[in-house]
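Same chain as my last thread, 337 residues:
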Amino acid sequence: MEAFLFRTNLYRRALLPFSTTGAVEMVLDAELNRPIRHPKQVLAIGDSRMALRIWLANRMDTGYTFGFAGMAGTLPRVWFYLLRDVDTNRNKYAGILLPVDDYDDEDWEDLANRSSDLRYLIYRLRYSDLFEFAGSYTTRDQQWIAARGTLLRGLVLKEDVQEFLRGPSRRMEDVRAQVGTWYGVQQDYAGPDTKMTGLAVDWSTRKVTYPGRLTAAERKSVDEVLLRGSTQQTGARAAYMRKWFGKIVDRYEGSRTKLIFYRVPRGPLVRPANPLLRKTHSIRELAVKPNVILLDEHLFEVLEKPELFADMMHLNAEGSRRFTELLASEVGRVLGQ
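reply #2:
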């Protein structure tokens, strides 16, 4: 049953389209089936903060056509396996865009033990990935879950299958509708119109002034971002970045593809830097590789304004437009006409 249902495309076509697994497969299918009309292709990959609007970038005179293979909530471990399947021969793209929060590493989140990575990647993982993928988790529990899921996809997809069996025809209608919606997003989605105008912080008193439209839950999320304290620096984030970005860089070594790193617009307001925090610099270390390009880390600071953000992390429609124009132009410049 495992081999028949989940090691072929049989059930893959019926995945819940707005689940983590279904959304990844839909995005990959869209990129793999995108018509390639000339050889100068650039792929954007990343999470929900990657605000490049492909339809707008492709109207600009950059000399390149842009594609997209990102997904909200994903990180470099997921990107490595997605790139492996979307660019099998390592020669499809002139450049690949890779976003980072910062060019310096600050520990504040456990990236290595994100359980959701297994669900994003369940159709991308092979038996040969078992030890590397499962071993990249640092706790025994997560290692066991990752190993078990890599071997038996059905254990990860169990809830999806149960939901499918409750209404197969309804599921297939949802799949068709979601695929159509995604292609529409690729063609004309601009982004949300909401703004964070009115947001301000007195850093000496740590007092936040909120936009009037925010709910209590949204105000709490603002506090969690702006007033977050520093945690003990263990080097875990740097180790994660070196491993997974390093694997991406190594994979493209000797190919024509340039890996273009850039720092995303950090938010409507940016927390003051802590001068006492000892940071490592994994992304800067990668810049010595001949196939790596680091864009100016200050390139998007001009966008770090409340009126250009929809929330604490995501650019709104106007912010996304300006971001797209800046990034696409810079890509055309660094790759050359």
